[in-house]
Amino acid sequence: MASASHGPQQLKDRVIQSRVHRERDRFITSIPERQVLALASSHRDATPCEFFAQPKRGSYNICYFVQFPDEVKWVVRVPLAPCLAFGARSKLESEVATMQLVASKTTIPIPRLIAYALNDGPEPLSSFLILEFVEGRKLDLQKLIELPQEQQTNLYTSLADIYIQLRRLEFPSIGCLVSGSDGIQVKKKTISLDTNMQELEGLQPSKIQASYYSADGYLTSAREYVAMLLEIADNAFTKGRGSVPDEKKGSDALYHLHLFHTFAQEWIDPSLDQGPFVMVHGDLEPYNLVVNENMSIVSVLDWEWSRVVPRQFFTPPLWLDVNDTTKLAFKYLYGFYLEKFDRLLVIVRTREIERFGEPLLADEWTAAKHNSGFLVANALENWTDMDWFAHRYVNRQWFPNSDKEELAARVKAFMEDPAHRALITAKLDEGRAYQAAVERLKKNDAESLFVTIKRILSFPTLSNITWWGGMALFFAGTSFIGNRIVQFHIRRQK
C-alpha cells in the first residue's frame, strides 16, 4: 500500500523532495531580513519596525513577525517559490481573492490583509502578503482529546460557524477564485496540496486537468470532476517512481485502486452533477486554527489551497478523534469519529437554525456521513488514501466473509490481466532504479553533513565541542539537533 497521508503532506519522491528542500533552503537564505523590515515600514508611512519573534517556516511560506513602536504587530509572509509548482503568483492571487471574498461575505475570523504583491520575479520578495498578527495559539491536537466539556463546546461552536458560512458561498463552476475587473470569480483550475506535490514530482496532473476544463477555465460537472481525480490518481500510480516497492504490494495496491474506482462511481450523487459548487478552505487542519484561552477560534490562517468543489466534497474536519484518515478507514474507528462528529453536528444544526432559519448543512452532513462518505471525498483528493480505504473499508463492506486467502485469490485473478502484469513489471524495474537513487542520496547527504560538522568544529566559538561530540551530531543525521547545527552554520556563512 502507498504511504499514509495524514498531517502536513510531504512529497512522495524522496529524491525530488531532497532537491526541492535544498532549493527552498537556498531561497530562504537569500531573503535579506533588513529588506523585510523595510518592506513592512513602506506600508506604514516609513515607520521603522523590528522583529519581535524568530521567523517561522511552514511547508509553503516563511513568516516574519514585525512590531512598530506603537506595538502594532504584523506578519510578513513570503511564499516559498521552490515548493510551489505553479508559482508564487498563482498561489497568492487565489488566496487574496478568497480572503477578500470571505471578509466581505462572512464573519469568519481571518487576519486582516494589509498589503500584497503578486509577481513571479527572481527576487524573493517579489510576492508577499502582509497580514495583521493575531494573538492566540495554534490548536493543539493532542490536547483536543482532554478538553473540558465547556471548551469543547466553544471549539465546536466556532467550527460550526465557519462551516455553515462557507457552505453558503456557492459558485457556477469548479476551480479557484481570481479577482479581476469583473469582480471575484472562479477562473482557474483547482490546485490542491496533492496536485501541487504531484506537479513538483513531474507527474503533470495539470495536463489531465486541462483535458477536463474548458478553454476558458470552467468545469461544471461533479461527475467529470470525480473522473478527473480518478485519472490523476491512476497517473500518479503509473508514473510515480516509488509507488511499487515489491510485486505483492504493487499488485495489492493496483487491485485496491480498481476497487476504489468502482466504489467512488457508486458514491457520486447524480442529482448534484450540476451543482451546487461550494467553497472549501483546502487545509482546515489544527495548525491553521488560532484559538484563545477558552478554545474559541479567533483566526483561520492560510487560505492558499482554498477552492470551489462539488457539494459532496464539502466535508467536516476529519481530525476530531484520530488525525489519520487511513486509520479512520477501519469501520470501528470511523464509528468513534462519528461520536465526536455527532456532537459537532448538533451544534451545526442549532447554529444554522439560529442564523439562517434552516439546517441546510446539518441535513446534508447527516446523510453524507453514512457508508464512510466523508472518507471517499477525502481519498479522491488525496490519492494515496484510496487503496487504504478500499482495503480497510470497501473490502469488508463488499466481501464481509473474506479472509487473507480469499483476498489473495481475488488479487491473483485481477493480476491475470496482461496489462496489469505488464504495469507492475515495469514499475518494479523503475522502483529498483529509484531505490538506488535514494541510497545514493542518503550517502551524499551523510557525506555533506560530515563535511559541515568538520567546518563547524573549526569555529572558535565551538572549540569546546569535542570530536566525539561532532560524531554524535553526524550520526544524528537529519535529526532536530543536526538540522539546528547545520542552520547555525548557514547563518555564520551568510
UniProtKB/TrEMBL annotation:
Residue span, Aminoglycoside phosphotransferase domain: 64-308
Keyword Ligase assigned: no
InterPro entries to which the protein is assigned, alphabetical: AGP_Transferase (IPR051678), Aminoglycoside_PTrfase (IPR002575), Kinase-like_dom_sf (IPR011009)
Pfam families in the cross-refs: APH
Segment forming the signal sequence: none
SUPFAM superfamilies (alphabetical): Protein kinase-like (PK-like)
Keywords for the protein's UniProt record, in alphabetical order: Membrane, Transmembrane, Transmembrane helix
Transmembrane segments: 465-486
Highest taxon, organism lineage: Eukaryota
Gene3D superfamilies membership: 3.90.1200.10, Phosphorylase Kinase, domain 1
Protein name: Phosphotransferase enzyme family protein
Natural source organism: Lasiosphaeria hispida
